[in-house]
Amino acid sequence: MQCPRCHTDLIVVEYHDIELDYCPACEGLWFDHGEMELVASKMGSSADAVAPQQSADTNEKKLKCPECHKVMDKRLLGATDPVVADVCRLCGGLWLDHGELEQIVRQHQEPGDSPVIEYLRDTFRA
Ligand SMILES: [Zn+2]
Ligand SMILES: [Zn+2]
Question: Where are the beta strands (DSSP E) in 32-125?
């Protein structure tokens, strides 16, 4: 599977037994349908907090789903400080660019408490 952003081959990384596809070049992350909710629950966050919301009004380049090769939707993700995620209407997969997962997670943690972010940094940049 190739990165929808830069077409580098994605590598599989494990986060608490959840297999995610990670781009070693641009550091984006691909979540299969339902995986985002699993990751959120492992992080002590609710599934609601990471459910894709309304369409994002953005001029960002549209990306193609690495699974179905269809153009994905731009959707807002996250409650208070949403990021623009690419969501596939066909397979329900979801792409987050570098730093976007951290931005979502940070909203649901106490200030100064960043074990998840450190975990991601250690694991995904090893
Ligand atoms: Zn990439
Ligand atoms: Zn898809």
Answer: 73-77, 83-87, 94-96
